[in-house]
């Protein structure tokens, strides 16, 4: 079911695949060992402690195999049906070694194998080795969270009261709405960058100022493909034509913490402006690519926001205490919490995990591997895929010519699929499509951008693509 275009391999020294296998993954496994060790030494149950030590040994073995270029071995059956498919594909691929294997398969395998150790245990089922890291990163994004909460509250109240549209012509209202939609989407897009400095430096005073802000302009020029207008047009059409009907938007989530926070900002915005009546969020079933959202991360985020004062001022690991939030800051964050909880209780904000999202393949396989999920996504007005990995999976992490049309590269998810796909991605991997002729070459020539062999500009998360495919047209 996959395209014929070959995938990036960990053996390709010019690709970020090789940097990942050589440098990033050993660090990630070491981090997992450290985290587990910390938990093990503070648990007061000998049986649990011993079992935890066993998992640490397994993680160390995994790291050894990776660093010594051993074969990927079949994952032990932990009772979940996806294991068979991981192992079958491993065999079909001829039991490859870590440094000569398709990047996408091996990276998914890595996280699935880690999960199996916990799933097979008695005391550690559901343990997330990345949870600590996710929470502390979210805590450190306090300034951006506070600023966005204030801005969002203002907008939501304005949308509710209709005050923003008083005395304006329908054209003016539409233009303002479009601008705000783009703004919300861009916040949501850049929430995916590793470098969040952009967001903390933005001021959110009013639409005009936002449009004029240096930061926003600078960031807009980093969006190499921007199909937001097309997405806005379909959403608006749906609102007109299905005035009293359901208008659903799906978000295939990426990272938790700050990125999930901005996803919820967008979700809340779409609901409060009536651009959508339901938002379906798709988290991962297991800890995935370090920071991806699991259902527990979703509830943990809401829990932090019930009492923002306690969360944001609790001393961190270094014992450093943070200054207290003002009353207004607390009430802005609480406003978000209350609105999101209400949407959730009313069934307007739904969390729907599916095992497909943590399978090893690209989304070209979706209609065959998970036909019921494929059909379900057709019910949506727009399916938003967040982040780099979702993008890699949409295009099968293949070595496309960068000028290939997005609609071609996503294969069965493209035209006539019945699914409207929108990808919000800051580039953190080699694969990229939909670029105008010459753009890739130009970026490679910039300082640090790479050369004829290496597409280094695409690794850092500094550049983004927002690509749309209307599968219902
Ligand atoms: O590029 C590094 C990397 O970890 C890739 O392996 C992966 O595709 C991506 O980043 C994860 O990023 P995101 O959270 O945006 O999907
Ligand atoms: Mg991620």
UniProtKB/TrEMBL annotation:
SUPFAM superfamilies: AF1104-like
Alphabetical GO biological process terms: DNA damage response
Catalytic activity, as annotated: beta-D-fructose 1-phosphate + H2O = D-fructose + phosphate; beta-D-fructose 6-phosphate = dihydroxyacetone + D-glyceraldehyde 3-phosphate
Superkingdom of the organism of origin: Eukaryota
Gene3D superfamilies in the cross-refs: 1.20.930.60, Uncharacterised protein PF01937, DUF89, domain 3
EC number: 3.1.3.-
Keywords: Hydrolase, Manganese, Metal-binding
Ranges for domain Damage-control phosphatase ARMT1-like metal-binding: 21-443
Cofactors that this protein relies on: Mn(2+); Ni(2+)
InterPro entries, alphabetized: ARMT-1-like_metal-bd_sf, ARMT1, ARMT1-like_metal-bd
Coiled-coil residue spans: none
GO cellular component entries: nucleus
Domain observations: Subfamily III proteins have a conserved RTxK motif about 40-50 residues from the C-terminus; the threonine may be replaced by serine or cysteine.
The name this protein goes by in its record: Sugar phosphate phosphatase
Biological source species: Penicillium frequentans
